[in-house]
Design a protein that fits this description.
There is one protein chain. The protein is mostly helical and 200 residues long. It has one domain. Helix content is 78%, strand content 0%. Helix 1 packs antiparallel against helix 4, helix 2 runs antiparallel to helix 3 and helix 3 runs antiparallel to helix 4. The radius of gyration is 21 Å and the shape is elongated. The two termini are 38 Å apart. The relative contact order is 0.18.
Length: 200
Amino acid sequence: MFLAGCVTKPQDPNASAPREDVAELHQIVVDAQQLVRATLQSLDRTATRTPCPPRAWRTFARDIQRLEVDSFKVRARAQAIRTRGQAYFEQWQERLASVQDPEVRRLAEQRREHLQERFSRIRLHAEQARAALQPFMAGLRRLRNELENDPAATGTDSMKELIRNTRDNGQKVEADLTAIRQELDAVAAMLKPSKGAKKD
């Protein structure tokens, strides 16, 4: 999953605005977070029953499939934003060089630095989420396959350990998605025009 930058080249007429990019990614992260949470709840319902009822297994398998599909969407969107993000910060630097008022230049530079700090934290949480997502998905797939073959397998020690490890990794993913969402909220607030700004 995820990203390193946030915005588009302003001269591209087809490109979305920075705030639109952030808002779109925010919604994707929220959706992914909800799917991870739903999958964890489904895992808990499935893992606490021996043998696992067919209906619980079908719901569990469906949630895993939805999470797999959604993770591809998150990665694709994040890659597009990452590509445009570096160009955005480069252009910001170019515009700064042409600003005459030193106070305006100082404030703009300060804002740029704060945004970069936010994106550095987003990158860190994204890397952590991705690191936890791989064993989380692998554990989910293994559980799905094991329970399809043997619905009573949830009672074995090896399965209990697999369930516990899978749940731990899922909770790590969810925690990092929450952190990313909070950082994106802060970025959106920083990109919001001030109330005193003049309208064109």
